[in-house]
Amino acid sequence: MAQHALVTGSSHGLGAHLAARLAADGWKVTGLGRRPASETPGTPGVDHLQADLSRPETLERITDRLGEAPDLIVHNAVSYPPRPAHELSLAELEDVFRVNALVPYRLTLDLLAATPDTRFTSIVVINSESMFHADRDSGAYAASKAALRVLTGSLADACRSRNTAVATLLLGPLADPDKVAQLQRVAARRGVDEAEITRVFLRKSNPDLVIEELIDFDACYRSVQYLAGLGRAANGMLCRLDGGSAGSLI
Q: How many domains does the chain have?
């Protein structure tokens, strides 16, 4: 019988890629995303559930809609503030924190409560090195990611005596399609190589980075595979796939 994986934030981008790769590798995958099924890739083997995690009432229905408890949970859902942090209303701040930190925490607790302790559960929480580089405009997003990191640590501590592992995959700048397309347009406009434009972009945006290319989605998937494959030894683990952008002493 195929194992069951839940991937949040699976409507597009990295989440869609992780869900598709898991399905291709034989997992029974449930993808959770804000977009309706008609706006998702429609990947074979991925059962899409539409859910807006910024709405408080959504959380109450997710566990019932899932049916069986998953063997693997990948928290990838993310919300980006619509405006700079100092311009956000309290409601907008709450939405960002709810999606980026509070729902992954609360949903994990609910799913674990419904899972027999004889069944191993692997939880991989996708986080961002942005928490180390907060500025005037990115403070709300960075703070939500810092909150996610603290809550993930508390989940790992709570799972010390459970048949569960809670690990963090910390990512640097990703090669998402929109970012790649933007860099390609800049390279074409300036008549230079795309790789050189990417190097310049990364050096300016991430001074501590020691790689000169964006991190591809497949590297992220292999990292998720690695963490899930470690079993209980992965509990509390932090795996950095950030090219050193979080700083040399971290």
A: 2
